[in-house]
Design brief:
CATH topology of the largest domain: Jelly Rolls
Number of strands: 12
Number of domains: 3
Radius of gyration: 22 Å
Structural class: alpha+beta
CATH class of the largest domain: Mainly Beta
Shape: globular
CATH architecture of the largest domain: Sandwich
Number of helices: 13
Order of helices and strands: HHHHHHEEEEEEHEEHHHEEHHEEH
Helix content: 40-55%
Strand content: 15-25%
């Protein structure tokens, strides 16, 4: 949670800071939720927002789940804004200005989308795409917005039009494992939407993003009325299942953190490749890498230093260069 400089801090900022530092009683949070929902108590709404940015994982997860079910929050997901927002329709000019500030090229309709990548979930025929457009809702969100949290009842499926979203899971002890980073064209919350069970992970935007959201009821109707959408769903779920199996295999059977990190680096999409070197552009921080392999940030920093010392990799600014692919692959066994 961001705190302003001390010379410009207000009493409310101080109160929010103290709340965010402590573990909050779940019953107290639920009471704040009821006060906000039933009595329009903005003070209670502020308490929930502060708890949603808490350093305590259990407090943060519960507050985000409560905010996700609130009728007051604007938008289609569980985006936790910096203040409680009453659900009011903004003027079109204000909406356009907010969208433009994210630096995104806004896609107004799926039928007008120029993307031809066949890996996109939403590459439907014209007929199916028209039906999809009628039931879907477009939205843009900044980096750091929560779409849904682990265990929350599925509200629908999010198709990522542009940007990147991190999917993570958290243990009872607060340990975070970054499962994957979703890119444009990916369907988020698809399995939970089809099964009607809770979302398997927490989805948080890593960059400004645009989404196409379809509520669960409408999505199931589209699957029944358009076989192509049903077929795309089956293929996508099958691909996710195979990917999950591979990730579990790597996490369990790759014993060392060095091997796990080597696998992660090798899995990145290459920018340029020849017989000697592979150049990879990665936006992952050391902390994100640590969350992906189940290690600490300090461990990742030390391992990367060791790999550079062994001349297996080098860094050219934001570009990671794999100097010895075979040597890096040897560490994964």
């Amino acid at each position: 949670m961001y705190f302003p400089p001390l010379d410009g801090i207000s009493a409310l900022d101080i109160e929010l800071r103290e709340t965010a530092r402590q573990k909050v009683d779940p019953l107290y949070l639920f009471g704040c939720f009821l006060a906000w929902e039933r009595e329009e108590d903005l003070g209670a709404g502020w308490e929930l927002v502060a708890a949603a940015r808490s350093s305590d994982s259990e407090t943060r997860a519960q507050a985000q789940a409560l905010l996700g079910g609130s009728r007051h929050l604007s938008g289609i997901g569980n985006h936790v804004s910096s203040e409680p927002v009453l659900k009011k329709k903004r003027p079109e000019s204000a909406e356009a200005e907010a969208s433009a500030s994210y630096g995104l090229e806004i896609i107004e309709t799926c039928a007008g989308c120029e993307c031809q990548d066949r890996s996109y979930f939403c590459r439907f025929s014209e007929c199916a795409l028209d039906a999809w457009d009628e039931t879907s809702h477009k939205s843009t969100l900044p980096a750091g917005a929560i779409l849904f949290v682990q265990g929350q009842v599925a509200r629908g499926v999010f198709i990522l039009c542009s940007g990147k979203v991190n999917l993570s899971t958290t243990s009872r002890e607060g340990k975070i494992l970054l499962l994957k980073s979703a890119d444009a064209g990916d369907a988020l919350g698809l399995s939970a939407t089809v099964s009607g069970m809770g979302y398997e992970a927490t989805a948080e935007t890593a960059t400004p993003c645009q989404f196409c959201f379809v509520e669960r009821k409408h999505f199931l109707e589209l699957m029944e009325s358009h076989s192509q959408i049903g077929l795309h769903t089956a293929r996508y779920l099958s691909r996710d299942f195979r990917s999950a199996q591979r990730d579990i295999h790597d996490l369990i059977l790759t014993r060392s953190s060095t091997g796990k990190l080597a696998k992660l680096l090798l899995s990145q999409k290459p920018l340029e490749e020849d017989e000697f070197e592979t150049k990879v552009h990665t936006t992952m921080t050391h902390e994100e890498m640590a969350h992906r392999i189940g290690a600490s940030r300090e461990t990742v920093t030390r391992l990367l230093t060791d790999l550079r010392r062994k001349r297996l990799i080098r860094l050219d600014g934001p570009t990671l260069v794999i100097r010895d692919r075979y040597g890096l692959e040897a560490l994964t066994f």
